[in-house]
Amino acid sequence: MDFHTDFKPLTVQPQEIEEKSFEMITEELGEHTFTPEQYPVVQRVIHASADFELGRSLVFHPRAIEAGIAAIRAGKIVVADVQMVQVGISKPRIEQFGGDVRVYISDKDVMEEAKRLNTTRAIISIRKAIKEADGAIYAIGNAPTALLELIRLVKEGIAKPGLIVGVPVGFVSAAESKDELAKLDIPFITNIGRKGGSPVAVAAVNALSIMAARKE
């Protein structure tokens, strides 16, 4: 069957599509208060979500970008809360510095421990991650319970992440977990409200890894 459409794309070249998208984002976003260091993260989050409200809601600890780049360049692990985040992050850009992208939520021991304690796998996965990933970047896009557990462990001095990208999406505890993260005096990237998700966490980490590679 022959399908016909009058619509013709501006370009079919991937690099040109991305560049044009970024131009449109900058034009439509207009004036903002983000620093030049923070803006690439905002830009990629909007690019991934097509959501300017979400982009404007991003909140950065003053040392967030610096800490994220430093962690990547030091070969620190990136811990993803779920497989969707792990898959979306550009592993080659992390691995070129000696790092890795890991997810623990489906590990057999994590599932067994969560069942034994009658709690979420997300919580147990964070407890496992902190034992293996000192100074890691935590990319949390889906599980507020993972973010709240990480915050608790930071407050108790047990967890020492290099950066927390805490942007879980949802209705139960998502906004509240991000509010708690924003109170910490350690490097973080988060946003206000219920919006977020895997694409947002992925976009933030990928923006950082691109900046890390450029600072070689």
From TrEMBL:
Transmembrane segments: none annotated. Pathway: Cofactor biosynthesis; adenosylcobalamin biosynthesis. Signal peptide: none annotated. InterPro entries: Cbl_synth_CobH/CbiC, CobH/CbiC_sf. Keywords: Cobalamin biosynthesis, Isomerase. It comes from the Bacteria. Residues 16-209 form the Cobalamin biosynthesis precorrin-8X methylmutase CobH/CbiC domain. Belongs to the CobH/CbiC family. This is Precorrin-8X methylmutase. The lineage of its organism: Bacteria, Bacillati, Bacillota, Bacilli, Bacillales.
